[in-house]
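Weekly structure sync, notes
Attendees: PL (lead), two postdocs, one rotation student
Agenda item 3: pending single-chain targets
PL asked that the sequence for the first pending target be pasted directly into the notes so everyone works from the same version. It is reproduced below exactly as submitted, 60 residues in total.
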Amino acid sequence: MDPAAERQRCWVHKTANALDKMPKTVQPSAKSLMHDIYQAETEQDVRNAFIRFQERYQTK
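Predicted structure, written out during the meeting:
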């Protein structure tokens, strides 16, 4: 989260908005990977989860 941001959306709304832009067939697995990002315990775990998400869905 960015403390300098004027407003921040909660993860529920961020996730829903991102999934809305994706094909319905990939939404369940994408949602799972997004959960891995925001539920990660360490910064390195966040980075690894984000990389996995990008590798899988960047072109989609």
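Discussion points:
- The mean pLDDT is 89.
- The helical segments are 11-20, 27-38, 43-57.
Action: rotation student to compare against the earlier draft before next sync.
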